[in-house]
């Protein structure tokens, strides 16, 4: 399938670009361990990933966990809940048959009109993530340094370029499939400490960070979408929109030795940008709003169970091509086998009004043999992705 080939090439090329430009999109951070647990992380994050999930968790680690290096963490995701990939594939088959017929009145050319009519209003959302982090847990103060990267796209068919005549189907500037993306760079320093209040152990954590924002647009005719995405690494496609400084903050409460309750706020200083670089598509808003998430977890010696819930309904970072709002419920569990292997499962569901209500299933495994490796996968109705990360822990 042509579109599936180009999406695969896009994510590979974007991985190259993201590691070159160090970017981060809005929304709660995700990495392999938490993704495998349904993206539950507020009260379950370990020392390697606390800076990306909840800085307060840096101060609530096991006594033997005092250093971790996450290097690197890379993932790719595609949300095709509208089924756009299959619809474009059908349009391509009909388009090829119409061109071969050479007759605008043929059944094949009539089929083109039908298959193209199904495309407008459908959205496709690929995303590529990467990150590195260093975490150190001390007796009185814990800290971490993190670099988090994302390229988030929202895509669909550009209605202004429609031409389903035979010459139009052969014109690379007609019937355009457009992916509009935001690329950001987030560099943060996290600090966390503990206090006692009424017999409860409270952990407070903050992450001041600098975020730079860039945009890019990819487009190709939906009828000839078969050449991959090598142009994605073209520096001329990237537009610098500026940067801003903001703050993440987290709170953890140890209710018992094993049960924790936490909340984290991202982007306490909100900001926004307008991308007007593409005159044909018009301006688009890119927003980094304050987001709140709560989590609860049981952290045992061999079993960890966690659940997170977004306390706010969050607008998409790129508000274009019908991108959906999100309010995620995440549930997951981990079984530790002799501190050598970890088995993980989870579920994630978007509770936002008007959003796709299908649940996403997740699973993954962790392996420790000097180097620690985590692998995770997520799948649902036309949504799929995978994450891989490596690191060292002492």
Overview of the structural elements:
This protein has 394 residues and is α+β, with helices and mostly antiparallel strands. It has one domain: Porin, CATH 2.40.160.40. 16% of the residues lie in helices and 47% in strands. The protein has helices at residues 2-21, 32-36, 50-53, 84-101, 107-117, 166-169; strands spanning 67-79, 125-136, 142-157, 176-197, 200-221, 239-254, 259-266, 271-275, 284-288, 291-299, 303-310, 328-337, 341-350, 360-369, 371-380, 383-393. The strands form two sheets. A 14-stranded antiparallel β-barrel has the order 1-2-3-4-5-6-7-10-11-12-13-14-15-16. The protein has a two-stranded antiparallel sheet with strand order 8-9. The longest helix has 20 residues, at 2-21. It is elongated and about 80 Å long. The N and C termini lie far apart (46 Å).
């Amino acid at each position: 399938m042509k579109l599936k080939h180009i999406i695969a090439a896009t994510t590979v090329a974007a991985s190259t670009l993201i590691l070159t430009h160090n970017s981060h999109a809005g929304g709660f951070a995700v990495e392999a361990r938490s993704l495998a647990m349904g993206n539950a992380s507020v009260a379950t994050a370990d020392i390697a990933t606390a800076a990306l999930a909840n800085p307060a968790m840096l101060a609530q680690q096991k006594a033997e966990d005092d250093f971790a290096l996450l290097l690197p963490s890379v993932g790719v995701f595609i949300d095709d809940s509208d089924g756009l990939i299959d619809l474009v594939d059908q349009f391509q088959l009909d388009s090829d048959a119409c061109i071969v017929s050479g007759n605008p009145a043929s059944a094949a050319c009539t089929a083109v009109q039908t298959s193209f009519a199904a495309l407008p209003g459908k959205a496709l959302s690929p995303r590529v993530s990467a990150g590195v982090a260093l975490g150190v847990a001390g007796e009185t103060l814990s800290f971490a340094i993190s670099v988090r990267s994302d390229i988030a796209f929202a895509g669909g068919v550009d209605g202004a370029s429609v031409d389903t005549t035979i010459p139009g189907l052969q014109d690379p500037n007609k019937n355009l499939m457009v992916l509009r993306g935001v690329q950001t760079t987030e560099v943060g320093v996290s600090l966390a400490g503990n206090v006692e209040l009424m017999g409860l152990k409270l952990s407070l954590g903050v992450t001041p960070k600098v975020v730079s924002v860039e945009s890019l647009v990819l487009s190709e005719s939906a009828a000839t979408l078969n050449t991959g995405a090598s142009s994605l690494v073209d520096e001329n496609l990237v537009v610098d929109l500026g940067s801003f400084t903001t703050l993440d903050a987290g709170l953890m409460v140890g209710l018992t030795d094993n049960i924790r309750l936490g909340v984290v706020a991202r982007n306490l200083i909100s900001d926004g940008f307008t991308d007007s670089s593409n005159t044909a598509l018009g301006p688009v808003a890119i927003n980094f709003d304050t987001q709140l998430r709560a989590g609860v977890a049981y952290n045992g010696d061999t079993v960890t169970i966690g659940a997170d819930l977004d306390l706010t309904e969050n607008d998409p970072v790129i508000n274009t091509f019908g991108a959906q709002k999100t309010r995620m419920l995440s549930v997951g569990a981990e079984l530790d086998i002799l501190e050598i292997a970890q088995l993980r499962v989870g579920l994630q569901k978007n509770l936002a009004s008007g959003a796709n209500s299908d649940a996403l299933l997740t699973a993954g495994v962790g392996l420790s043999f000097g180097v620690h490796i985590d692998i995770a996968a997520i799948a649902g109705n036309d949504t799929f992705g995978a994450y891989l990360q490596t690191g060292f822990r002492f």
